[in-house]
Amino acid sequence: MAQVLSRVARIPTISRFGWLMGLYAENFTLLTRLFEPADLAAGSYLSSIGDGLDLRLELVAQHAYTTELRMTYALRDPVTGEADPSAFLRLYRDARQVEATHCYLGRRWQDVIGMYPPPAAVLDHRMRMNTFLGKWLHYLGERGHGVATLQRIGTLSAA
Question: CB-hemisphere CA count at 13 Å for 79?
């Protein structure tokens, strides 16, 4: 008796880790297009477009293949005094990726996922942070922030 083989169309899938790497690559493109951080010297920069919501970009360090920076508004959380929202970013020029390593959106990561989270919780948290970063970068571009609005306001202190 002949076997009947059915054709099953397989839709390619992507793992959560693969999705995260895709977010990193997309964020690299967005951040590079907006501010060209590889061309900036370490220090503080302000992007003002006249809407009263100035963006602060702090370039912490330039290394051979990476750039470390912090992006925030000139707003403070009334409870903690921290800049809110803010994102600490690491740009990998050789891999063409930007990773949001820490975000502060009213709560610290320890309050969100605990001190010793399981690996799946860490991956989920990284996906949320980097999705937020991508949306924020899109928003900044739509509002008109970019290299043309960026002005250096000083060097970072050694603190």
Answer: 5
pLDDT digits (tens, 9 = 90+) for 111-148: 566 667 787 888 888 898 899 999 999 999 999 999 99
Residue with tokens 């992007």: 47
| Token duo for residue 122 | 């860490």
pTM, whole model, 2 decimals?
0.80
| Structure tokens belonging to residue 76 | 């403070």
The structure tokens 């899109």 sit at: 138
Instruction: Name the residue type at position 81.
Output: G
Q: Contact 147/33 with Cβ under 8 angstroms?
A: no
Name the token pair of 29: 């493109």
Residue with tokens 């942070």: 129
Q: Quickly count: other Cβ atoms within 10 Å of residue 103's Cβ.
A: 23
